[in-house]
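2.7 Reproducibility. Because tokenized structures are sensitive to small changes in the input, we list the exact sequence used for DEAD-box ATP-dependent RNA helicase CshA, including any N-terminal residues retained from the expression construct. No trimming or masking was applied before prediction.
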Amino acid sequence: MIIHEITETAIRRSLNKLTITFQDFQLSESLMKAINRMGFEEATPIQAETIPLGLQNKDVIGQAQTGTGKTAAFGIPLVEKIDPASPNIQAIIIAPTRELAIQVSEELYKIGQDKRARVLPIYGGQDIGRQIRSLKKNPHIIVGTPGRLLDHINRRTMRLQNVETVVLDEADEMLNMGFIEDIEAILSNVPSEHQTLLFSATMPAPIKRIAERFMTNPEHVKVKAKEMTVSNIQQFYLDIHERKKFDTLTRLLDIQSPELSIVFGRTKRRVDELTEALNLRGYTAEGIHGDLTQAKRMVALRKFKEGSIDVLVATDVAARGLDISGVTHVYNFDVPQDPESYVHRIGRTGRAGRTGMAMTFITPREKDMLRAIEQTTKRKMDRMKEPTLDEAIEGQQQVTVDRLRTIISENNLNFYMTAAAELLEDHDSVTVVAAAIKMMTKEPDATPVRLTDEAPMISKRHRNNRSSSKRREGGGGGGYRGKGKSTRSSYGDKKRSSNDRNRSSNDRRQKKSYNN
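Resulting structure tokens (single pass, no recycling of outputs):
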């Protein structure tokens, strides 16, 4: 077995500018179109190692935690090899829970959309007659839970004689839930000549036996976390819902008044929308990402270094190799796709012996990523409470007071003394100073802005808690970094109409049934 261990060297390569992009894999035009639309730019370590092996039809054992991008790691080569003209099932993905099966199928649908790859999720709790009707529509890829997959095999409503690729996702979780015998029965119905990709955070003996029995000379890709020191950076997280993120960001900017700050978004779309929203709220912001020309990036960076803009909004790729001194604050508006990217992000601050602050927004279902980051950095983040509107106003008032003190200390006020004396004849000094503070203070701006929701990185603990009550067919929430269907949301005082909410609900239901 060949072991590809992604250790300090790979992490150093990622933290420097020697990164692997999806263009490096020489994928088909249809796949690249989908990848670009999804906002992917740079391959994570597990993707960089697994995708080439998958494209070469090699068996792979991938050891990686949730949130490392493993779905795209197996999904991209899997979809690339699909023959859309064939009516046969060509690939099956076995997942421990219905939530994970749905999430994986949604991501595969988006990856294969331009190639017209048909993806069908199969799981317990859904009407089996409906699933049988969907199976008659000739899906290319099946994503399912072990019990329901085996049920269809036994009913002869699903035939696997043409399957070329099998993926076991979160194999250790399926072992914990008692699915090993079902998995072995499913694999026994697949042709002996097929590719197998097995992903598991750990490799207990039963998983190793499956690998020995059903895999041929597998290559082992292991993502190994390396301790990374960021001792001079204060690290905080905010437990926050997606729809509160933007108002929270602006309040933090008002309270903290950073000299230079970078806001990180997960996708190019997010960067564009955040930049526009910040400017609408009265901040001066510029965004940089992979779609911008080098000239436009340089203009934005020059403005940032000169201090003529308040905020630089960036994707991970665009921020690689930036050498900007004086960055005091980093805001992770979206959780990064892997812990190593987090270390790179916050490394933009706290340079040259200076201290820095990093704030990361964690939605309720992203706690697994918080733990993964803390394990990588070997440091616990402190929880920061959501700032209130009053605190934001007080923060801006303090900025004004500090500016007034600076002006007073410069002692260059002779030209204004006469006007000040005239004011004091009609008003007391406290009233005059209060009026000056009010005039100079930036008032809170509640202008509604629109951002596209980004689906969370699903909490693995939440999935396990729910699956314990429904052991065989899972009932838990995820463990997969799915992107789901995005919806346009209004941030600020306005809320979506009931029609918008109903339409989003219908979209989700349609997506969970059958993807054509």
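Residues 1-17, 225-229, 459-489, 492-516 have pLDDT under 50 and may be disordered.
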